[in-house]
Amino acid sequence: MLLSSPTRSTLAAGLLVLTGCASYPDRTRGAYTDFQSGHLLRSVDSYSDIDVTGSKFLSGAEAGTVALAAGDWKGAEAMFNEAVKATEELDRRAVLSLTDAAEGLASWATNDTSREYFGEGFERVYVHANLAIVYLALGRLDELWVETRRANKLLEHEEELYETEYGAGGLGHFLSAVSYELRGELDEALIDYRRMEKKGVGTALVGRSLVRLTKALRFDEENAQLVELYGADYERPANAASIVVIGGVGLGPVKRESSLAVPTKDGFYTLAVPEYVTMLDGGAGLQLSVGSTNVDLVEIENVNEVARANLGDRLAWIATKSAARGLLKLGVTRELSDDHGAIGFLIGNLYALFSERADLRAWQCLPARWEAGRVFVEPGAHRLQLSVGGGASVQLGTFELAPDETMIVLARSVGQSLYAYPIGGLKLNDPAELNQSKAELAP
User: Fold this and answer.
1) Between residues 99 and 77, which one has the greater pLDDT?
2) N or C terminus: which one in the chain shows less Cβ crowding within 10 Å?
């Protein structure tokens, strides 16, 4: 007796899975290892190859993240925009398009890896936040604001969809606030800091900023309330310069499979769902040293927590799909067993066991958390160093900062490596230049 058409189609799809590609972590192991070990250009090349990632979104997001760590702002911009284009393609698709229908049937018959990957909701938020970092580095503040607004809109959609709050958005709001301050639009910056305070992210940094800005804007009543919460404003030199540091620390979580094979009288019934596991969280945070003054950076967004919460909101649906596929595959095993006896029973069980796989695709190169800090200094020459507590450090050099100037330092730590890029100021490489500068500043 021949197999029915639905059974043949289902089995064929399953066999493709059995003989098909390795999981995403396996396929990208080389690129991921290169990123961890500091071979950034090689990692960018690997992640850029869609044959490696199997996803336009992940190729753009992963390669863009590594390029950002390498200080390649233009390359990162191009790659993150590729990831954005992939998500725009999803938005344009008709609900019942042929492509979507075919992928949908395959995912119900085999597993979720058969569907094209457009990023989790929180990952799409971070693409726009990372683009905002790129535009900050390039000094393109109007485009930075566009990306932070997009990030915030997507985040609000995710929170409304799952009726929750992720404690996210700190990175986007901080970038927006800093850019407004660079333009002298303190009232707009204050709005972003208020939003961070409401979300409870980066409170130690945000509280000081709220006190400082309400004082500058002469919002006396609000300032008095904030002083009670966060303390009085610090004394700063006249026309003080400032240094703002924004850094990604460690490596975000990656997905692994959690599966359960349940024996029944008709064969095995397999459930498989993804779960996030913590990788390198970076340990102690970043610290900026300005001469003999040390400033600890403050966590403004915890990627580990956001990723787990977002997956948790979708886990019931993922498990339901896996269970439904299990019932379908039991039917295949019964039909094979009826038609071919023990051999059919064996083939059906092998199909059920190995075709049910959790979707382990995820943006691997995200940091475990984002940190930020700000210090005000006298105009003049300052020697700067950035370090990870108990780990790597980078001598940024000595910089001449003009009155009211804001220097930006963008950083990323991965394992024993720390990458940092000062933007602004005048770097003084020659000790003679430094001594001359100090003489010119002397009264």
Assistant:
1) 77
2) C
Taking a C-beta distance cutoff of 8 angstroms, is the pair 309, 413 a contact?
Answer: no
Residues 144, 108: contact at Cβ < 8 Å? no
Residue 106: count other Cβ atoms within 10 Å of its Cβ. Answer: 19
The pLDDT tens digits of the residues spanning 359-411 come to 899 999 999 999 999 999 999 999 999 999 767 899 999 999 999 999 999 99
In three-state secondary structure terms, 346 is: helix
Choice between 297 and 443, residue whose per-residue pLDDT is larger = 297
Quote the distance between the C-alpha of residue 356 and its chain's center.
Answer: 28
Query: What pLDDT sits at residue 352?
Result: 62
Bridge partners, 274 (sequence order): 257
With 60 as the cut, is the pLDDT of residue 175 above it?
yes
User: Do residues 144 and 172 lie in contact, with contact meaning Cβ atoms separated by under 8 Å?
Assistant: no
Alpha helices of 139-284 — where are they, by DSSP H? 141-162, 170-182, 186-199, 203-216, 220-230
The torsion region of residue 183 among left (phi > 0), alpha (psi -120 to 50) and beta comes to alpha
Strands (E), 278-359: 286-290, 293-296, 298-302
54 torsion bin: left (phi>0), alpha (psi -120 to 50), beta (else): left
Lowest mean pLDDT among 72-81, 220-229, 354-363: 354-363
